Amino acid sequence: xxxxxxALIFPFSVISLKKYMENLSKxxxxxxxxxxxxxxxxxIKNFIRKIEGLAExxxxxxxxxQIWIIFYRHVSGxxxxxxxxxxxxxxxxxxxVYILFFYCDAFKFGYLKFVDALTAQWIAxxxxxxxxxxxxxxxxxxxxxxxxxxxxxxxxxxxxxxxVYLFTYIxxxxxxxxNMLMIYGNKKAITLKIKMEKRSDKYHISKVISAFSxxxxxxEEIRKHDAVVINDVPAEIRNDILKYCYGEKIRAYxxxxxxxxxxxxSEDINLFDTPLFLVKGxxxxxxxxxxxxxxxxxxxxxxxxxxxxxxxxxxxxxxxDSKGPVFFRQERVTRNxxxxxxxxxxxxxxxxxxxxxxxxAEDEDPRITRVGKRIxxxxxxxxxxxxxxxKGDMSIVGPRxxxxxxxxxxxxxxxxxxxxxKVKGGLTGYAQIYGKYNTSPYDKVxxxxxxxxxxxxxxxxxxxxMTLPTLLKxxxxxxxxxxxxxxxxxxxxEEEKAEQDAQI
Length: 504
What we know:
alpha/beta
């Protein structure tokens, strides 16, 4: 039987925590060594991540149980949940932690940067502990003192730093960046190399080669590397490369074409001995759209509870900071090419686009006000779009609605751009989470099609949770002046070619 004293010292004294971490690290290293003979990179990585995640969930569940014993076990009688009921209590908490961590991508140690993984875990824990606080208040039939739950959150935040640092360290010790060969078909495709080099902890592109090189030379180069990146390569050549890599058990990273994404959302038809894929092209079903609309309304009403005071403060700050209206209205394109008037907090000086021509924001843009800089940084300027969602012009999750002139321009450059209008425009989505303000139109189409073709209500909820950490990421709000220039790409390509010629 636990007592309050043992609850305070077991199992997280400084010494026991240190030993716990040391032993866990040894276990994970041993697991990798035992599994190396499987030759299945993903199986090893996923197995170890499961052990790490399980260890973290158990740790947080035990800490929560101790907080319960010390502060809350008498909330509804002398021995509330102190028998077998305590296991239900711990189990519910552990399940909540696991689900929220999973949908916030908080278990992706090494895959995410340290700060991103840590932020995801912190946000997930805040949500879990708020839900748990209301749960135990319901058990007590009155509002309880929230300080113990705040203490729990602080302890868990501190442990998250230790866990994420340890697991990220273990990941980088186990999985050093592989030597990768990038095979490209178009000079502009080399921009991917610049993007991937920003994650040098995961990727090391040691050589770049054209897909139009001699076929035997291409295969020879593939054999010299641990993995290949196939980017913007003609279909026939790409098929040959993929088949060769598959046969030789060489990892291949492929930048998908739009048709690849469309096929990925197809339905299997198994009526005879020839497999068929059915591509419907209709987007979400009527039932899915109805459920999506219902969730939009419920979540927006909930969001207004903390959102209205924030909007009031921002509105006052805007009026005090500069002349002009509080809100900024602009015509945007949504489902089926229909237009609506989007609502945002004004973040620029009045008349910033008085000539009627769109001027995308840049870093250090002189038109942005002092308050505007702050509200744009964490996208607070987009809070009024809650009213657009309630009205039915937008959805919480969906492709970002573009300005009419941008939509017309991008549709000329990328004919498939109108595919994004199969669903309502959204406040968040694939392109908003994984992209930036300066993401290319073609990449926006690919990201948004991945959402449309794989739509589900669960995916919506996951993307909403994943949005929270992105609000704190500076790079997601980079201006259009940060777009990689074609001249930089050509120069980089010429350097690569010169290095290759020197080696011959």
